[in-house]
Each structure stands twice: as C-alpha cells, then as structure tokens.
Amino acid sequence: MVRTCTKCGETKDEADFHSATQRGITRLRAVCKTCSRTYAWDRSDDPKPYGRVCTVCKQYKPLTDFHRHKICLYGVEPICKKCKFEKRKVRERNDPRQARNVDLKAKYGITIDDYEAMFAGQMGQCAICGRADQKLVGRPSPRDGASEEPAVSPVQRHDRLRA
Fold it and tell me: How many CA within 13 A on the CB side of residue 92?
C-alpha cells in the first residue's frame, strides 16, 4: 500500500513511514521517515529566546540565570539558579545527614556510611600523617571573633596543613 507524506507531498510505500501506537492502536505517522529525520535535526528556523519562566518562582528571567543542561529546553534547566540554591538550603536544613551523603557521593564517590567506616578504621587519625583531628573543621561562630571558614573534610584539611 502507498501513502502520501503531509510534509513533502510525495507518495511512498508504507515501509517509508514510522508507526505510532496510541491507546493500543497502531497507525502510521503522517510524515515520512526522511522528512521526520530532517525536521528532527534542522531546527534553524526556531528562534532561541532570550529567557524563560522559572517553574518555581514563575518569573521570566534571562537564560544566564539558569544552569546549563543540554537535554532541557533551550539548553538550560527549568529552575533558576536562585530557586535551586534556596531548595538546596531547605533540603540541607531538613536533613543534614542526607545532604552530607550527597556531597560525599558527588566529590569522592563514597557514602556517608563508607566515610564513617573509614574514619573509624583509621581510629580518628589521618591515614597519611597519623594526626588525630576532628571529623570536620566547623564554621566558627561570629561571636567567637574568628573568621568564618568553610567546613572541609580531613583530606582537604591535611592538604592545607602540608602546604
């Protein structure tokens, strides 16, 4: 059987059309395989916008206010940087152990249970120099008069002490 493509207007065999299944019914698409491939790769007529609406705060913002993500629409994430930061702060406040676990997994590829097992196995000492320190260098409170320093892992602190 033959079918006419709605895009190019050519009459082609049914084998030249993709099939689509909706609600259990399989039908042939209206556009031939050649035209659908061409459309899938050629988006030159699509104008790239200057911004988009954040899905959280519902404000229109420039694309520079969004993190890049090549799979998402326009190559940026749907949540703006500010909202994403706020969501992370809330998540860290609600479950600090899970936030720490996510950070360790991203930075070192280990879970918090792996970290605690390594720390206990080393008897609270650095595996390189043997110094016994706390798990983390905390953030001194401003009332102590100390400058606020970010929390670091024992490995990072060891590297700082050696330098």
Answer: 9
Q: Cβ contacts of residue 31 below 8 Å, gap of 6+?
A: 5, 6, 7, 17, 39
**C-alpha distances out from residue 137 to 140, 151, 152, 155, 157, Å:** 9, 5, 6, 11, 8
Q: CA–CA separation, 5 vs 11, rounded Å? A: 6
Q: Are 19 and 44 in contact (CB under 8 A)?
A: no
- pLDDT digits over 40-94, tens only? 555 556 667 788 999 999 999 999 999 998 888 888 999 999 999 999 899 889 9
Give the integer Cα–Cα distance in Å for 23 and 25.
6
Does the pTM surpass 0.70? The reply is no
Torsion of Cα atoms, 54 then 59 then 62 then 66, to 10°: -30
C-alpha–C-alpha distance, residues 153 and 104, integer Å: 9
Q: What is the pLDDT of residues 118-144, one digit of tens each?
A: 888 888 777 777 777 655 433 344 444
